[in-house]
Amino acid sequence: MGLATDPVDAVAEPVDVLLNLAPISPEDFTRLAGLVRDGGVVVSTTVWMPAPSDDEREVRGIDLYVRSDADQLAELVSRVDAGDLRVDVGERVSLDEVTDVHSRAAAGTLTGKVVVVVDSE
After folding, report:
1. pLDDT in tens, 7-63
2. Predicted TM-score (pTM) above 0.70
3. N or C: which end of the chain has fewer CB within 10 A?
4. Taxonomically, which superkingdom (predicted)?
5. Could you tell me which of 104, 101, 114 has the C-alpha nearest to residue 25?
6. How far apart are CA 104 and CA 98, in angstroms?
7. C-beta separation of 103 from 25 below 8 A
């Protein structure tokens, strides 16, 4: 997992909810889901990897997605333009590289925010 302490080793007792907000490998996600108590919930916000369920233990997997709000996005843009909000960009890629970005995200090796630069031609 790339962490100093593996969460599977660090958690001493089952948890009610596992909330995944970051790209990790499917194998690591399944291992982490094993920490959820019987009848608990696994929630994922990663669109490329569904939350694992375990029917035998009645552990539900829930995939949570966010609906974009044009007004909120416009407000964020104005804050960025004014210098009130800073977004740390890890890298910029061309549209041709998006497949690689998704692959790295699914593998859990993508770090930082990625800006996709679309050629105007």
Report:
1. 888 888 999 999 988 777 888 889 999 999 999 999 998 877 788 899 999 999 999
2. no
3. C
4. Bacteria
5. 104
6. 10
7. no
Selection from 97, 77, 74, 95 nearest residue 87 by Cα: 77
What residue type is assigned to position 62 of the chain? I
Question: Which one, of 53, 48, 58, lies nearest residue 107 by Cα?
Answer: 48
Share of the chain above pLDDT 70, in %: 94
DSSP string, the chain: --SSS-HHHH--S-EEEEEE-S---HHHHHHHHTTEEEEEEEEE--TTSPPP-BGGGTBEEEE------HHHHHHHHHHHHHTSS---EEEEEEGGGHHHHHHHHHHT---SEEEEEPP--
The residue extents of the domains of the chain are: 7-63, 70-117
Instruction: Give Cα 95 distance to the centre of its chain.
Output: 21
